[in-house]
UniProtKB/TrEMBL annotation:
Keywords, comma-separated and alphabetical: Antibiotic biosynthesis, ATP-binding, Nucleotide-binding, Phosphopantetheine, Phosphoprotein
GO molecular function, one term: phosphopantetheine binding
InterPro entries registered for this protein in UniProt: AA_adenyl_dom (IPR010071), ACP-like_sf (IPR036736), AMP-bd_C (IPR025110), AMP-bd_C_sf (IPR045851), AMP-binding_CS (IPR020845), AMP-dep_synth/lig_dom (IPR000873), CAT-like_dom_sf (IPR023213), Condensation_dom (IPR001242)
SUPFAM superfamilies cross-referenced by the UniProt entry: Acetyl-CoA synthetase-like (SSF56801), ACP-like (SSF47336), CoA-dependent acyltransferases (SSF52777)
Domain Carrier: 644-719
Protein name according to UniProt: Amino acid adenylation domain-containing protein
Database matches in Pfam families: AMP-binding (PF00501), AMP-binding_C (PF13193), Condensation (PF00668), PP-binding (PF00550)
The keyword ATP-binding appears for this protein: yes
Annotated family: Belongs to the ATP-dependent AMP-binding enzyme family.
A GO CC annotation given for this chain: cytosol
Cofactor: pantetheine 4'-phosphate
Any single GO BP term: secondary metabolite biosynthetic process
Length: 932
């Protein structure tokens, strides 16, 4: 509290910064970023041990903190003002914040004895805006109809139109309807009653769709079970749902023991002769399906979804997205994941064609592209992880480029994904949000810019951002996202306690249920919602919702494990992965842990990383310190003794593995998937191996040969000409340029001496800097990297690059006051003459003793962001006197190899593709301009 803080105010702030070991962002204040000042303002101090290298931030008109509330006490009153960072807050946001503050102050003045928890900071105008404007979503629809009735109506409209396709098989709407009717009669003969749960365990097939419709038509509710789930999880779902009927394919009959009745979807005897429609025995407020999701108690929980909720969802999607403008939709999601409904039931009640992907098309870009081409698919739904998987494969990129509509959801959309997609596809992109408890998606945003929101509520859906007391939060203030409306499901099967906890009375509409999502969010001024993460320990990994408590429970059931905590960590692509921290016996290996977990958990719930600890870090309150765990790197156990790479291929491959997985050491016995690899990283590995070793290894082979030794052996077995490394070019006066260098040269000529393609890095250096060593380190860098000694000129009408053997280089030294330093930085960045090497300049501004700015300016034709990082990393190593291994090849060797590669058969195919693209109207270069 404030008194304790006052008692301990003398502790040096700099020491605190070092001790807490926070992630540093030198453009922000460490430890805190909001300040209240009553009399004076503290001077912001920053301190890092040793020589400081701090990313430079210009200081003109920049707030010292994100937000500062300044109170000036004078003449018996306190006048307040707010100072804020304009790159974080808009003026209207600060005005709203001021209104909330005044609302709070007025309420306290009116009653100084009121409980703080009962106070509201939202204004009456905002409350009206949220309840009556943002949540004005009502539309009318025939809410008395069931899903199978809607399908039967569609059959009457388009009986001969193709309804579903899988591999070389297809069914028209009439054929699918008759087949489902035949199965439904068999199920009714087996005693299926209204709302009776019927399990379906099937792999992707026409039978899967027939089974779903057959169960609905019989009056039952289906329970989808993925055959890939562990036996124990399947048995739990069957037991918890109390199902007496299990529909499955012939080859899955021996998958698990089952005491109830088995119905073979491949057996003609399972289908009654009568294929006419049945009289419906259920109404729209009865169950359609029960989907199991991860549960915090260690057991999955079944969510009960009614026909009305699905119907509303379908109508809302059609109302929000122009999906009916297209003919077919790709079905890629496992049917045990609720977003499968959008890819199956939604199109089937609206006359679209469902194109079911086979297992190859789910992960392999080539198969995916062939499927899109073969069926002229224009609409796809996918998680960010799946989209990124295809973006890392050339054929996957081609397929994405042919889509007209892309719906992304299931997990938070990473920053930058929209811009990356925009380079590959012109498709309309939608960001989708919704928990299973409110029926698939509850809000949608048409993505038009990189700043993402989860959009606005869909039809007949109301969203509220609430505090802990279930009071409305104002616009811009975070809180728990709660959802009400027709999409809210019945609750959890056999879990009345949990249903009561999560499904509460809507305080704004009498008699209506409201689901507490556990998601943190805030309203944006335009009525859309920004997602801010979870309030508990529930996470989404590659689209699957996971209660980390369930994984922890499974870990703790393993003998010799004393403690376990599961945390989701973001990788370098911004995607989350599970990391297990545990205290246990030294004999436990990752291999054993994975094996034990796989008996209870599906593959997507098994952690990517395992970190062994001697004890869990604790907070002062004695709770596990999860923030401290995130800062621990730990050791990733592999369960195998380290054996160093020996052959050339093993050494090369080990370096690639280390880069892809972010590890410092990889042994030949290590399994790619045991040390942090998954399908997305496997795709990155395929791309990296091809780029650096010129080997075209498939994603399937990564799974077949998962250890480094096996993978290296596979590569060695390939034909010699496939994996020859990029050779060193023979020495000559001029070398050809790469395709990207040629493009950069042309753009530079168009700019005419501008600095648009300069890459600049400015570092604040504090400490005893040795200027002589600094300059010598950069001289060594320039001698080490040929690109830094390269100039460009036209030779006989062709652009060529020339590498200088020796080159003059010196650092530009300047002195400046703190006030004038920004002007010096701006003058330092100037246009390069591309003919004159080096295309790098280094400057050092001395502001005062032991306080400098290090300026680094390079042209994009010889570097990029990655290159800049390498330059800075190697400069530090050379400055500290560390030796660097010699480089086998330089960029000119790559350029020579690339020009030869262009003539290869693989490149010829790409050439054909681009010629086809440009055979139509040539797209204009969309140059950004300030004025029309």
């Amino acid at each position: 509290n404030a008194l304790k803080a006052y008692e301990n105010q003398d502790y040096p702030f700099e020491e605190l910064v070092d001790k807490v070991n926070i992630n540093r962002d030198m453009s922000r204040n460490p430890v805190f970023d909001t300040m209240f000042v009553l009399q004076n303002m503290q001077r912001e101090e920053k301190s890092i041990q040793g020589l400081q290298l701090i990313p430079y931030v210009g200081k003109h008109k920049i707030s010292k903190f994100d937000l500062t509330l300044i109170g000036i006490e004078e003449e018996g009153q306190i006048s307040c003002m707010i100072e804020y960072a304009t790159n974080l807050y808009k003026e209207e946001t600060i005005k709203r914040m001021s209104e909330h503050f005044m609302q709070l102050i007025d309420a306290i003045i009116d009653d100084s004895h009121v409980k703080l928890s009962s106070l509201e900071i939202i204004t009456s105008q905002e409350k009206t805006q949220i309840l009556d404007v943002f949540n004005k979503t009502e539309i009318e629809y025939s809410n008395e109809k069931t899903i199978h009735q809607l399908f039967e109506e569609q059959v009457q409209r388009t009986p001969n139109q193709v309804a579903v396709v899988f591999e070389d098989q297809q069914l028209t709407y009439q054929e699918l309807n008759e087949r489902a009717n035949q199965l439904a009669r068999t199920l009714k003969a087996e005693g299926v009653r209204a709302e009776q749960l019927v399990a379906i365990m099937a792999e992707r097939s026409l039978e899967m769709i027939i089974g779903i419709l057959g169960v609905l038509k019989s009056g039952g509710a289906y329970v989808p079970i993925d055959p890939e789930y562990p036996e124990e999880r399947i048995q739990y779902m069957l037991k918890d749902s109390k199902t007496q009927l299990l529909l499955l394919q012939h080859h899955l009959q021996d998958r698990i023991p089952f005491e109830g009745k088995l119905v073979n979807l491949n057996d003609e005897a399972s289908y009654h002769k009568d294929g006419s429609n049945l009289e419906s025995i259920v109404t729209s407020n009865q169950l359609a399906y029960v989907i199991y999701t991860s549960g915090s108690t260690g057991r999955p929980k079944g969510i009960m979804v009614e026909h009305l909720s699905i119907h509303n969802f379908i109508q809302a999607i059609i109302n929000k997205i122009p999906i009916m403008e297209h003919v077919s939709i790709l079905c890629m999601t496992t049917f045990s994941f609720d977003i499968f409904v959008l890819e199956s039931l939604l199109p089937l009640v609206n006359g679209l064609k469902v194109v079911m992907a086979d297992s190859k098309a789910l992960t392999e870009g080539e198969a995916f592209n062939q499927l899109v081409n073969r069926h002229s698919v224009e609409v796809m739904q996918g998680t960010p992880s799946r989209i990124k998987l295809f973006m890392n494969q050339k054929e996957g990129i081609r397929a994405l480029g042919k889509l007209k509509m892309l719906m992304i959801g299931g997990e938070a959309m990473p920053p930058g994904l929209y811009e990356q997609l925009r380079t590959y596809t012109d498709a309309s992109i939608y960001n989708m949000y919704g928990p299973t408890e409110t029926t698939v998606w509850s809000s949608i945003e048409r993505v038009m810019k990189s700043q993402l929101s989860i959009g606005k509520p869909i039809a007949n859906t109301r969203m509220y951002i609430m505090d802990d007391q279930l009071k409305l939060q104002p616009i811009g203030v975070r809180g728990e996202l709660c959802i009400a409306g027709d999409g809210v499901t019945r609750g959890y099967l056999n879990r009345p306690d949990l249903t009561k906890e999560k499904f509460v009375e809507n305080p704004f509409i009498s008699g209506e249920k409201m689901y507490k999502t556990g998601d943190l969010a805030r309203w944006l001024p335009d009525g859309s919602i920004e997602y801010l993460g979870r309030s508990d320990h529930q996470v989404k990994i590659r689209g699957y919702r996971i209660e980390t408590g369930e994984v922890e429970t499974a870990l703790l059931e393993i003998e010799l494990i004393q403690e376990a905590i599961i945390i989701a960590r973001e990788d370098k692509d911004g995607l989350k992965q599970l990391c297990a921290y545990y205290v246990g016996d030294d004999s436990l290996t990752v291999e054993k842990l994975r094996s034990e977990l796989s008996k209870e958990l599906p593959n997507y719930m098994i952690p990517s990383y395992f970190v062994k600890l001697t004890q869990m870090p604790l907070t002062p309150n004695g709770k596990v310190d999860r923030k401290a765990l995130l800062e621990l790197e730990g050791n990733l156990q592999t369960g195998t003794e380290y054996e160093a790479p020996r052959t050339v291929v093993e050494v090369q491959l080990a370096e690639i593995w280390k880069e892809v997985l972010g590890l410092k050491q990889v042994g030949v016995k290590d399994n790619f998937f045991d040390i942090g690899g998954h399908s997305l990283k496997a795709t990155a590995l395929v791309s990296k191996v091809y780029k650096e070793m010129n080997v075209s290894i498939s994603l399937r082979e990564i799974f077949r040969f998962p250890t480094l030794q096996q993978m290296a052996g596979r590569i060695t077995d390939m034909e010699q000409h496939i994996y020859v490394s990029i050779p060193s070019a023979e020495e000559r006066e001029y070398y050809p340029v790469s395709s990207s260098q040629k493009r950069m040269y042309i753009l530079n000529q168009l700019e005419g001496g501008e600095i648009s393609y300069n890459i600049t890095n400015v570092i604040t250096v504090k400490g005893d800097l040795n200027c002589k060593r600094l300059e010598e380190a950069f001289r060594q860098l320039i001698q080490r990297h040929e690109s830094l000694r390269t100039g460009f000129e036209m030779v006989n009408g062709k652009l060529m690059q020339r590498i200088e053997t020796d080159i003059e280089f010196s650092i530009e030294y300047m002195k400046s006051s703190e006030q004038e330093v920004d002007n010096y930085v701006q003058r330092f960045v100037r246009a390069f003459n591309l003919q004159q090497a080096p295309l790098i300049r280094v400057g050092l501004i001395e502001i005062e003793p032991e306080h400098y700015l290090l300026l680094l300016d390079m042209h994009h034709i010889i570097s990029d962001g990655v290159s800049m990082n390498i330059i800075m990393k190697e400069w530090v190593q050379l400055y500290e006197g560390e030796g660097l291994l010699p480089l086998r090849i330089g960029y000119k060797d790559y350029a020579v190899w690339q020009q030869k590669e262009i003539q290869s058969e693989r490149m010829k195919k790409q050439e054909t593709y681009w010629l086809d693209v440009f055979s139509k109207d040539i797209p204009l270069l969309d140059m950004p301009t300030d004025y029309v």
